Each structure stands twice: as C-alpha cells, then as structure tokens.
Amino acid sequence: MKTNYQLDNPIWHALNSTHNKFALGEQTMLRYPADILPFMAFEHSDESPLTKIESQMGTNEKAFIVGKLPAIPTNWSVFSKLECLQMICHQPINFIKKEDYDIVQLQPENADEMVEFINGIQPGYFERGTPSLGNYYGIRVNGKLIAMAGERLKMTGYTEISAVCTDPAFTGKGLAQYLITQLCNEIRQRDEVPFLHVVDTNTRAIRLYEFLGFEKRTTIPFWLVGLQN
CA-CA to 46 of 20 to 30 Å: which in 61, 71, 136, 145? Predict the structure, then answer.
C-alpha cells in the first residue's frame, strides 16, 4: 500500500497542510507568494486549473509546477522541463562533527546574504522570503558564508531539504554532508521523514545522497510555466 502519496504532488500537499499560511489561489490551484517561492500546484483531479491562478501571476512571472502538468491554456507557455530524482531517507545518519567548521543557524536578517550566495551558484529557486519556510543552516569562514542548506516544502510527516550549496572554493571538504546530516537528524527528531529533489544528471550529488542513506523514490519533472507576454 502506498503511504507517501503526498510526495507525488508535494507542493499541493505542502500548501494544504503545514504551509497553508503561505497559500494563494483558490479551490484547485494554489501557489506560494512570489517573494517566497516560485512554485505552484494543482489538485490533480482538475485538468484545467491554470485559469484560476492568472490573477495571482505578475507580469513576465514564471513559476514551477512539480509532477503532473495540467492542460496549458493558449495564453500560457511551458518554458522548460527539468527532470529530477525525488529521494527519501528513512534512516538516521551518523553525525560526525567537522572540527574546522561550525554550523550556525541562519536568521531572517541573513536573507540578503543567502539570496546572493545561492543565486550566484544555482539561481532560480530561492527568493528573499524563502528562509521563512523552515530552518536554514550555514557554515562561515572569516565571517563569509561558504555553505548552506535548509528546509523548503513542508507537509504532514515530511520535510524537504533544499538549497544545498557550497562555494566552489570549498567543495570536497564534506560541508554539504555535514549540513544535510544536521537537517536530517533534526527532521527525524520531529518524527518527520526528510526528502529532497536533485537534477537527474547531477551524479556527484546523487552519490552523496545515496551515501547518506537516501533512496530514489521516483523521477519527477519540474515544469517552468507562465503567461505569455
């Protein structure tokens, strides 16, 4: 019996449970505010939901739908499709402290720094309000942020790990592993299950996640859509 069906439509279930306070839209089509996350979702029983969200879309704005793609009206476009692995971790991870680096919890006042850092490495998914979705942690050297990771989608029983990012000058030092371990164990202490999404061609990251105990649950597309100009 399939028990993690929420993960087939993760944005929808996040906006209808833990992240309900962020939900904009109506009935079968919801989205996060543009300054928090460029994500939206629909109830899969509705085949043509996009017209219900048009009033919530800004000029030239694009947003991601994760999973099933609805019918696309003539005044909308699909701009790209990104195939990702959805991975899930059911086991504790042994925490090994790295003596040369300390993990710090990032605060709302660090938002501008976080946006600049992550969008300089993997742009397009992180807004100034994204840190309000969950806990974010970072590692600094001489006051400069060199690695970070945090919680994005949250729904009953599950929390997504996202924004796993390391300054290229500090890769290979296990900093991502250190941060993911911190987050996974914290999530499990809340009796929740950690999951994540990774581009299916990012073999280096996939190997790390598998080493930490994550398993592939499914392949899931990220569709970038928006109104035509």
Answer: 61
